[in-house]
């Protein structure tokens, strides 16, 4: 797990620096390491699936990550009560274009924390294809990251905001915001 987190942070730093090729390589490696750590993890280590899917999305390999999450959680009866598992399912549903499932699972994840609630609103706005609501919700996420400057140099640089921007772009949407946490539009 530690190696996955390290490779993930390396990929995010490269992404934010504009080195797309290095970012993709590191993020693909991180996704693979998260996947392997999930296979070896104790039950209910759902954060590993979220990390794997985020890395997959940022590495432009969202479909394979989403398929893996859906299969991993399909038969896990313990996952239904977990906000983290709901987060993984909401992201996988967005990637698969299943907006109803994305809204349903994003509502289930909102009970996890303030950060989960912000992300839940953002996912729901993407699933509803409501660009205005999406932009407002993403601004809340970015503001939270900017207020906690340690995220810029720590493990979770801005993966949530960057990943959601990638999913929005896949839907022809944008938050319209500029932030040092978000890579320049290409």
Question: Descriptors for this entry?
Answer:
186 residues; mainly alpha; Serine Threonine Protein Phosphatase 5, Tetratricopeptide repeat; 10 helices; 73% helix; globular
Portion in helices: over 70%
User: What about the largest sheet?
Assistant: none
Rounded average pLDDT: 85
CATH topology: Serine Threonine Protein Phosphatase 5, Tetratricopeptide repeat
Description:
The protein has one domain (2-170): Serine Threonine Protein Phosphatase 5, Tetratricopeptide repeat. Helices cover 73% and strands 0% of the residues. The chain has 10 helices and no strands. Helix 3 (47-58) packs across helix 10 (159-170), helix 6 (99-109) runs antiparallel to helix 7 (114-128) and helix 7 (114-128) packs parallel to helix 10 (159-170). The N and C termini lie far apart (31 Å).
Topology overview:
Blueprint: H1 2-17, H2 20-40, H3 47-58, H4 62-74, H5 83-96, H6 99-109, H7 114-128, H8 131-147, H9 150-153, H10 159-170
């Amino acid at each position: 797990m530690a190696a996955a987190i390290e490779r993930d942070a390396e990929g995010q730093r490269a992404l934010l620096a504009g080195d797309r090729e290095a970012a993709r390589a590191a993020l693909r490696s991180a996704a693979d390491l998260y996947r392997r750590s999930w296979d070896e993890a104790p039950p209910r280590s759902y954060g590993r699936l979220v990390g794997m899917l985020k890395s997959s999305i940022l590495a432009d390999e969202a479909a394979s990550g989403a398929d893996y999450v859906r299969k991993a959680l399909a038969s896990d009866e313990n996952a239904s009560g977990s906000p983290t598992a709901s987060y993984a399912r909401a992201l996988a549903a967005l990637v698969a274009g299943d907006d109803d499932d994305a809204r349903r699972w994003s509502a289930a994840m909102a009970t996890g924390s303030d950060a989960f609630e912000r992300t839940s609103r953002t996912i729901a706005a993407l699933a509803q294809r409501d660009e205005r609501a999406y932009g407002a919700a993403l601004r809340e996420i970015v503001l939270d990251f900017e207020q906690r400057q340690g995220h810029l140099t720590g493990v979770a640089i801005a993966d949530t905001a960057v990943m959601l921007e990638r999913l929005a772009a896949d839907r022809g949407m944008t938050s319209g915001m500029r932030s040092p946490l978000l890579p320049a539009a290409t």
